[in-house]
Amino acid sequence: MTEKSEGFFDAVIVGAGIAGMYMLYRLRELGLSTRVIEKASDVGGTWYWNRYPGARCDTDTMEYSYSFCEELQQEWEWSTRYPTQPEILHYLNHVADRFDLRPDILFNTQVQSAYFNEGTGHWQVQTENGAEFTAQFLIMATGCLSTPNTPPFDGIDTFTGPIYHTGRWPHKEVDFSGQRVGIIGTGSSGVQSIPVIAQQADQLIVFQRSAQYSVPARNRPVDPELVAEIKADYAGFRARNRLEYAGQLSHIPRNDFSALSVASVERERIYEERWQTGGFPFFGSFNDIMRDQKANETAAEFVRRKIRAVVKDPKVADMLCPTHTIACKRPVLDSNFFETFNQDNVLLVDIHSVPIQEIIPTGLRTADTNYELDTIIIATGFDAMTGTLLKIDIRGRKGLRLQDKWSAGPLNYLGLSISGFPNFFTITGPGSPSVLVNMVVAIEQHVEWVADCIDYMRGNEKKSIESILAAEHEWVDHVNNVAEGTLSPTCNSWYLGANIPGKTRVYMPLHDFPAYVKKCEELVANGYEGFLFSS
Ligand code: FAD
Ligand code: NAP
Q1: What is the pLDDT of residues 474-531, one digit of tens each?
Q2: Closest ligand, as measured to the CA of 493
Q3: What is the pTM of this model?
Q4: Distance, CA 179 to ligand 1 centroid (Å)?
Q5: Which residues contact 183 (CB under 8 A, 6 or more apart)?
Q6: Residue 453: how many CB atoms within 10 A of its CB?
Q7: pLDDT tens digit string along 351-374?
Q8: Is the CB of residue 210 below 6 angstroms from any atom belonging to ligand 2?
């Protein structure tokens, strides 16, 4: 392949998901020449790649959408409380069409490396097919959950049937009729797909390493009255949500009292009411579920009782009952997940006690059994938050490699900026609230902060910006201290990097969205405290 220069742009954005699309929109508004580079053949990011059966949003539909354009939010009609992947992708395509974004997006192109040229003060961005782009600003909108994790099971290449990862699902419909299907993993992706696949497959074998707490989604058609009420003051609704701890659900806020401050009958009534509501409000039943182990245990035991009430075989129910801290892994919502294990064609296999030994040509082998399978589904998640950035060879000043800078964890400031990497921004990077928040809200806040910063620089003849190393150390300590004040670090979650063998364990996302927004605003008011400019 020949190297070809694609010329100079004010900004290159990597990724055309929700973040990259909005970043492009904002930079165009500022008059910057911008090129978005996207590996996929179209827009959508998460919603382009995750096409597995049952894939849908678990943030309430009136909240999981852009708020930046009043006409857009007024004109778009959602069908259900938690829209499906095709519906969300349709929405994102509508946004791309409505704002004519595609002419500035280069699809089917993967960024392989990016170097900061200290001579010119510009980034040089190379793609897999040998093209090179030069830009003043490089903005990584590469996603927190965009690099699938496929564990290196022995013998994986010998399997004679198809293997699908939920995060790289084919575009054509997969028909499981008459098949013996095995699925490994019971996180959100597994929990969403298992009930749907179990409807079609002859037999579904679920290989579970950790049991999973899950709350019913209670998906249903949108309530036209609620929609009308929200649309009458959509801006106010969005503003109220931004003031919530996780940037969402202002209409069903967290109860501001302890689970241990009420009698057990009252506690049960509150859990039950929120269980019937469905969705994330369950985790806001009390204000100390994530702060006090005893309070947490009341929620955990409530869910375990629900599992035992649904699952008919007591041995299977036991296997499905988790024991770890509830909600220290990303909470999961389901539609008939536990009910599915009452079906005769569904088998649950505990691979914690008896691990998978290898994949064989005809299926999968654990220490005590050979499972014959036609298809294997890998639902083992993602190398979250850092994986996608570290796959790209990114080098800052003096050739400093991001892989080296982050060898002991993602040292950066605010999840936005990295010292030694001038004019380089990460949207919802590690150290920002990102995945603990309705992500569209987190993305919009970051995109707007970056756009405002670039606008400021252009208005004040600043050539470059980067964070100060001392500010980064303080920030990473702060993120971890905040997490230590909660029960979040008490289990093996991807928030900690614990799902990837060998990955440095650092708690990556930051709790408390409103406090973070305040910090971002204050430091700007104080002349971009923690940052260094060059003129
Ligand atoms: P992404 O959507 O991940 O987009 C990143 C893009 O960058 C991708 O298109 C990728 O191809 C591209 N890219 C990466 N590396 C390169 C490269 N080297 N070269 C070129 N292109 C590259 N969040 C919620 O708040 N609520 C939900 O209900 C919710 N549901 C989810 C369901 C699933 C199945 C998953 C996986 C995640 C979900 N999330 C949810 C999180 C979701 O990732 C975010 O809500 C949001 O879609 C992220 O958008 P993004 O643009 O930041 O990243
Ligand atoms: P995940 O939450 O990381 O779950 C992965 C599952 O695979 C877990 O059950 C895990 O077990 C298991 N696993 C991992 N490595 C394994 C191995 N080597 N052997 C056997 N089992 C293994 O991944 P995910 O379900 O794809 O979800 C990732 C995130 O994407 C979610 O947390 C959420 O943020 C987002 N998401 C959201 C939705 C939604 O509802 N809108 C849907 C899908 C995804 P352990 O628990 O033991 O590690």
Answers
A1: 999 999 999 999 999 999 999 999 999 999 999 999 999 999 999 999 999 999 999 9
A2: 2
A3: 0.97
A4: 31
A5: 190, 193, 194, 197, 204, 205, 206, 207, 376, 377, 379
A6: 21
A7: 999 999 999 999 999 999 999 999
A8: yes
